[in-house]
């Protein structure tokens, strides 16, 4: 009898122990270039919202340092991980991860900062989720044209000197950064394609940062303030910084019924941040091109399931050349 009781207890203990032990979750590591970046922070929050707890997902902040990101990745390769999702600090650093992943047979999804084509093709299980930077610049040009009343002669009343040429200032993301270079180039090309003549008075690199853009505006307004008819920003954070500087220094008129009455020139951004949308609603900014972070996050999660489960039905987004998922931009203005 005593032995029977011991056997029963042993069986119950084994059932209790193993009933709580399902299959081990696959590990996914998400390496973010900078958690303080408003757009990337938003994508990360959407990723967490889409996470169905099917995988063990850990997020790492590279703090805008490629050295930090490399150390995080090195540690993950040693510990073992089933999938890497990387928002690279530097685009050209992607090759390091691709080469190591090929050796370790660990798939990678890069997002928001596109690696070189040859790096993506180096290893079969490397993918990119992002946008077409040229598209955003061309769409920004159409948004500007709308903001100037599609008026190539008088610029919708913003032609201060009557020369029928847009005198503009550009706030640039990063020198040499693919998106910054492409957005800067394509928006000017787009404006010319819309029939406008353009003179770039000054281009200031503000590293996608609101505070740096705010500070840069002091120099810009001191030197070019009387001549500026348009401010083009590579992203919303810098456009917001510029708008706040102008607000704080009396360049805008008063608000009436929640809308500013007088503006010095048109301001446009890219990303679709909520603060930019609010400034657009109030008239401080004319508009922004929405970089759809929610769809980007959804595509990353679906692609992760497609890779880890080897199930094509998990992926609802088009996978171009078995490598790319490109998220479309959208317009947002106060019209």
Give structural notes.
- By secondary structure, the chain is α/β, with parallel strands linked by helices.
- The chain has two domains: 26-131 and 293-329, Response regulator (Rossmann fold), CATH 3.40.50.2300; 133-290, Response regulator (Rossmann fold).
- Helix content is 44%, strand content 20%.
- It has eleven helices and 14 strands.
- It has helices spanning 2-19, 38-50, 66-79, 94-104, 117-122, 133-147, 178-193, 210-224, 236-248, 274-282, 293-309, and strands at residues 27-32, 56-61, 83-86, 108-111, 126-130, 165-172, 197-205, 230-233, 255-256, 259-260, 266-271, 287-290, 324-326, 330-333.
- A six-stranded parallel beta sheet has the order 2-1-3-4-5-13, sandwiched between helices. A six-stranded mixed beta sheet has the order 7-6-8-11-12-14, with helices on both faces.
- The radius of gyration is 25 Å and the shape is elongated.
- The protein starts with a helix and ends with a strand.
- The model is unreliable at 4-20 (pLDDT under 50).
